[in-house]
Amino acid sequence: MHKIYLRFYEELNDFLPEEKRRKRFTHQFIDRTSVKDLIESIGVPHTEVDLILVNCKSVNFRYLINDGDDISVYPVFESFDISDVQHLRAKPLRTPKFVADVHLGKLSKYLRMIGIDVLYKNDFDDEEIVELSLKEGRAILTKDKGILKRNEVTRGYWIRSTKVEEQVKEILKRFDLQKEIKEFSRCIECNELLKPIKKEMITNRLPPKVADTQYEFYECQSCKKIYWKGTHYQRMLTFIRRLGIWV
Ligand SMILES: [Zn+2]
Predict the structure, then answer these.
(1) How far, in Å, from the CA of 77 to the mean position of ligand 1?
(2) From edge to edge, which strands make up the β-sheet containing 2-8?
(3) Number of C-alpha atoms within 13 angstroms, CB side, residue 120?
(4) Which residue has the higher pLDDT, 247 or 178?
(5) CA proximity to 78, closest of 215, 175, 184
(6) Residue 78: which pLDDT band, with cuts at 50, 70 and 90?
(7) Are the C-beta atoms of residues 111 and 191 closer than 8 Å to each other?
(8) What is the mean pLDDT of residues 141-152?
(9) How far is the CA of 186 from the centre of ligand 1 (A)?
(10) If residue 139 lies in a helix (H) or strand (E), which one and from where to where?
(11) Is 148 strand, coil or helix?
(12) Measured in angstroms, how far is the CA atom of residue 130 from the centroid of ligand 1?
């Protein structure tokens, strides 16, 4: 039986049982495995990890663990300069895009409402989600750690909160999306971009009260749904204010 020492930092502790959180602990093993398999066997999906130090040196996921190794595992850093060591994740996406799992319909709508690109269907299966992530460079949003442990998945985020507003906050923080927020830019129903449209082009499609009181309209280029700054707009502004962000 061999022995190694492990410590996980910051939010990676969310995946650990209480007795292993925020402290160095020992782990015993018989066969040498990759550090990726080791970390995931302890419960942390590799997509959450950005830096692994073994005996103070950075290693990649394929590193084979040795008896006596002292391993530190770090999450994605937001403001800490570690440019001289080996980051494990793919480079950040210039304009982050997402694909959400079937349980995150409500979250997807909230993210689209503030302009974030999120693919979602209530019948997506895991294969489709992984394929869309790889083909279109989309980070997977999920509450299922299993999908994030798959070798081919490089971008993903495990949602902690069960409350949608907290979930939006988590994602804005983790992917540094504050600057991306843009209301009235994306269709809540189908994720397509909206375009301003002249009122006279659509008057016959508006409820009379809306036609009488509103002057600014947007149309979804795909499903043709029309948006205007009515009561749902006020609700959206209240929501954005509650996020602590102003656009
Ligand atoms: Zn639409």
Answers:
(1) 35
(2) 25-29, 2-8, 70-75, 49-54, 57-58
(3) 25
(4) 178
(5) 175
(6) very low
(7) no
(8) 92
(9) 8
(10) strand 139-142
(11) helix
(12) 24
